[in-house]
Amino acid sequence: MSAVQLEVKDVVLRFGGVTALQDVSFEVEKSSVHAIIGPNGAGKTSMLNAISGVYRPQKGRIIFEGQDITHRSPYARTSIGIARTFQNIALFKGMTVLDNLLIGRHTHQHSGILKGGLYYGWGEKEEVAQRVVVEDIVDFLEIQHIRKKIVGTLAYGLQKRVELARALALEPKILLLDEPMAGMNTDEKEDMARFIIDTNEDRGTTVVMIEHDMAVVMGICSRVVVLNFGLKIGDGTPEQVQRNPHVQKAYLGQEDSEAVET
Amino acid sequence: MQSGNHLEPLAALAKGPDTFPKLLARNAVRFDGRTALREKKFGIWRPTSWRQYHDHVRDFSLGLVSLGMGRGEKLAIIGDNRPGWVYSELAAQAAGGTSVGIYQDSNLNEVAYVIDHSEAAFVVAEDQEQVDKILDMLQKLPNVRHIIYSDPRGMRNYKHPRLISMKAVEEKGRELARLRPELWMQNVEAGGATDVAIICYTSGATGFPKGAMLTFQNLLTTAENFNKVDPKLPGDEFVSFLPLAWIGEQMMCLASALTAGFIVNFPEEPETVMEDIREIGPNLIFAPPRVWENIASTVQVKIMSTSRFKRFMYNLLMPVGYRMADLRLKQGRASLGWKLAYQLAYWGLFRALKDRLGLSRIRSASTGGAALGPEVFRFFNALGIPLKQIYGQTENSGIACVHAVDDIQFHTVGRPIPGTEIRISDRGEILTRGSSVFVGYHKNEAATRDTLADGWLHSGDAGYLTEDGQLVVIDRHQDLMKLTDNTRFSPQLIENRLKFSPYIKEAMVIGNSRPYVAAMLCIDRSVVGKWAEGQKIAFISYSDLSARGEVYDLLQKEVDKVNKTLPAVAKIRRFVLLYKELDADDEELTRTRKVRRRLVEERYRDVIAALYGSSAQVPIETVIGFPDGKSMQIKTTLLVRDLETA
User: Fold this and answer.
1) Is CATH 3.30.300.30 correct for B480-642?
2) Which of the residues A201, A213, B201, B430 has the least number of beta carbons within 10 Å of its own beta carbon?
């Protein structure tokens, strides 16, 4: 059960003289929901970027399912099952929801220009197969009513959901979510939390998410890593982390508060 | 793939199937592989043939029997419109039971009330959301033995002993069929015309809902009689998107579809209904006024924001449609010139517009459940959609009167359908009698006696018959108002005219024993919001928007338009825009979206006091308590607008 799926080992990430991550190590178990929290500028997004391959750490290793992927390209990482969403929605705003999701399937498509160009049937057959997977996700995330809408015209909360759908279209083994609930109202947050739980439980997908809303973190995450100025200052269950004096200090600037919950 | 062996005793049905399950068995033979139902799932319309429909019902019904369902027991159903809903209803009926529909958006207390009052032993709850409602209230529901769900999403951690999936029940049914292959047809044949088929809980504008018991005979004769004046053919397309707990949807989706053999289509999600209607292009449509009002105002709103050329065409050609509609309604003859102009308007506007709305293939369009404003009627008739008004109550299977297609008049609701008699009582109340009239309210003898006094169904509606025998409905008898100068007027008539404005979502007109008529209006959040955006008016919430002077100016123009059509004493003298939308969840509307007048009057008495005060600005500080325990504190300055009514 408790097989380690992702291992981050002594990762150091520097931008010139700025150290974004300093010897950060943690492990993510398969099929868990893992949170990365910390104050602004703590290095959370940098951590996610290091895992997804946008940044290459100067030191340390990132191991996914036993393979060292530290030096693989982001593209190679998606094809072994790592998908992500972005803090500022990264979708093709001028295209429909369906087209965005079909693009999310690209790693699963095999008929290239040559094959598709030689005989339309191959391409068509594949398109149908991809559409079946995409429709399953549309149903799963309850976005049937917008499937033919242009993404740019949708409300923010829905765009966030479409982005999650696009990531799920990859059928990832691990899903990295960068503030999936930022800027949402309570209802939208509840929906999103439900979708994340369903993704994790129904599909067995491991989730690593950055989240500020502590109520959400406490509610749906089984493990929490706390970063502060590039250093890991806490790692454990939500309850353990809440009691951790370093965490309290980083969040509240004082040592003896009980009011960590928000 | 079962052979037709179990259907051998069909000879017994030769005298004519008199129950829903018998009709289903007949149709499974008669129509066999032809499409009976369609459901949009994963983006594709997936058909179910009459044979498959029958087999699902057979398996589920025998499954219920093996779970211990006895004849006369009740099965309650809550969920969106899906094949599973109709399978469940027919399965219960085939097992000798009665089906009880619950509106899917009901809150916990409403759900518990209906299940408890009907003594349902089985509950079919579509998905996690609905199952949660039942489980939350289970302590108060001692009669419930099994809760059956059809959508397993999110249910993996539910381990309640009384919970079982629809698939598992069907599997039990197939097991039982292997042991006793004759049982299914035996069960079907044991049913009879006078069995109670459904208990329909009426939304009840006052007090607790009452459960109207309707027999197969009530429903099937009504469907047949309705079919005589409004023919439906095998293979016609129909989209089912209104609550199946509503008598109108029961009449179409079950009674009529089983009788006539038309195809029932279930939309993908409630949010996709309009798109799904367009994809199907139905031949038949039956919807309550709010749906028609919605379509009409959507068209008007879209026209406001379309390209200049399209707007020009709309404004140019729409009057031609109106002119033709008026002529047709007066049964007058159009001159050749107008006919040509209408042809032009058809190709230039109506054809495209109807296609956009998915109404190009409509042969029969009707509205029922409440009165529809004449403006909306004219609108659809102008487009060439002969919208017919149906008048009826749950207690007479939903249909007493309907317009004939060549004789539509805005102010009437047409003539009684065959088999229904109509009489006006001495105090002006509409009474009906016939095979459609129900057998009584479940566990409520007193109400049954009152409603069925002297063998006539007392509708509670005031009305009269025209010289040529058409019925005119004025309003609910108890809602008719008398001003202090003894003028009588119907608030509903004024409200319907107000609601034709796309900016007005709900309206409540007051004036009983008061010096003049006043109105509380709820603005339409999206339409007025869009308008405000266009005017660069910033707002933060519904209450903020509804308190804007500019919005008041806009709405004043709308009220003025309505006032022009009203006699002097019934003109609206003052109005307010309410700071909150009326909501069924707060019990201010019924589940079929009719205003609960008395409750609203009581809850907003401060507002009403302001309407009959003298000040134009009234500070309001009040707490509104809602049935679910939450309360809303309101501290605002209410604007009251005076109108010139000279």
Assistant:
1) yes
2) A201
Residue ranges of chain B that CATH labels 3.40.50.12780: 13-283, 285-360+362-478
Residues in B touching A142 (Cβ below 8 Å): 269
Q: What are the structure tokens assigned to B344, written together?
A: 């032009």
Average pLDDT, chain B: 89
pLDDT in the model for residue A224: 93
pLDDT tens-digit series, residues B222-252: 999 999 999 999 999 999 999 999 999 999 9
- Reference B523, options B548, B492, B540; nearest CA is B548
What is the model's pLDDT at position B9? 41
Positions of CATH 3.30.300.30 in chain B: 480-642
Q: How far apart are alpha carbons B325 and B317 in whole angstroms?
A: 13
pLDDT tens digits, residue range B61-79?
999 999 999 999 999 999 9
Query: How many residue pairs bridge chain A and chain B with CB atoms within 8 Å of each other?
Result: 28
Give the pLDDT of residue B13.
44
Decide if B423 touches A, using CB distance below 8 A: no
Give B269's contacts in chain A (Cβ within 8 Å): 142, 144-145
CATH 1.20.120.160 fits B285-360+362-478, yes or no: no
- Domains in chain A and their CATH numbers? 1-81+172-185+201-262 (3.40.50.300), 89-171 (no CATH)
Q: Where are the beta strands (DSSP E) in B312-412?
A: 364-367, 387-391, 401-402
Q: Phi/psi at B172 (nearest 5 deg)? A: -60, -40
Percentage of chain A exceeding pLDDT 70: 91
CB contact under 8 A, B43 and A201: no
Per residue in B355-388, pLDDT (tens digit) is 999 999 999 999 988 888 888 888 999 999 989 9
> Is A151:A159 a contact under the CB 8 Å cutoff?
yes
The answer to whether A139 contacts B156, with C-beta atoms less than 8 Å apart, is no
**3 state DSSP class of B462:** strand
Any B CB within 8 A of A68 CB: no
Contact call for residues B484 and B504 (beta carbons, < 8 A): no
Contact B153 A202 (CB under 8 A): yes
Specify the CATH number of the domain B13-283.
3.40.50.12780
**Which residues of B are less than 8 Å from A144 in CB distance?**
43, 268-269, 271-272
B356 touches chain A (CB under 8 A): no
Say whether A144 and B272 touch across the interface (CB within 8 A). yes
Taking an 8 Å cut-off on Cβ atoms, the answer to whether A136 and B271 are in contact is no
| Residue of chain B whose alpha carbon sits nearest to that of A195 | B154
Structure-block tokens of residue B255: 């009674």
Its ipTM equals 0.74
Question: Which of B43, B153, B275 lies at the smallest CB-CB distance from A138?
Answer: B43
Residue B292 has pLDDT above 50, yes or no: yes
Please give the pLDDT value at position B336.
86
Q: Do A131 and B153 touch (CB under 8 A)?
A: no
Residues B247, B398 contacting (CB under 8 angstroms): yes
Which residues, 6 or more positions from A90, have their beta carbon under 8 angstroms from its beta carbon?
A163
pLDDT tens digits, residue range B75-100? Answer: 999 999 999 999 999 999 999 999 99
Burial class (CB in 10 A: 0-12, 13-18, 19+), B643: middle
Alpha-carbon distance A145 to nearest alpha carbon in chain B (angstroms): 5
Burial of B169 (0-12, 13-18, 19+ CB in 10 A): buried
| Partners of residue A131 in chain B, C-beta under 8 Å | 43
Which of the residues A145, A148, A198, A203 would you substitute to probe the B interface, choosing the one with the greatest number of B C-beta atoms within 10 Å?
A: A145
* Minimal-distance CA residue of chain A relative to B41: A139
Average pLDDT value over all residues in chain A:
87
Question: Out of A147, A194, A202, whose CB is closest to B43?
Answer: A147
